[in-house]
Write a structure and sequence with these properties.
alpha/beta; four-stranded parallel β-sheet; 4 strands; globular
Length: 95
């Protein structure tokens, strides 16, 4: 069985858009056979929560020196480029 991966999803308030993104990632990765745990946070909390996650997805700007693969969450909200970013997240999680 594949190892559980952790995805940190950040938005401005850790409520609305991060929930939309988190659900989409969880569903897509489950379909692709990658078990994931999703954590949600405010963008201002990312640096303090990034140590033990595999990837970061953010709908708002976050620091670019986190040391983890970081993806823009906007495609989950617009639908434009969503398939590509899901492929990129999958690739990062598979290592």
């Amino acid at each position: 069985m594949a190892q559980q991966k952790v995805v940190l999803v950040a938005c401005g308030t850790a409520v609305a858009t991060s929930t939309v993104v988190a659900l989409a990632i969880e569903e897509a990765m489950t379909e692709r056979g990658i078990p994931v745990t999703i954590r949600q946070c405010k963008a201002t909390e990312v640096r303090s929560m990034v140590a033990d996650v595999d990837v970061v997805v953010a709908t708002t700007p976050v620091p670019d020196d986190l040391g983890k693969p970081t993806f823009k969450g906007l495609p989950f909200l617009t639908g434009i480029g969503k398939a590509q970013v899901l492929d990129d997240i999958e690739k990062a999680l598979r290592g």
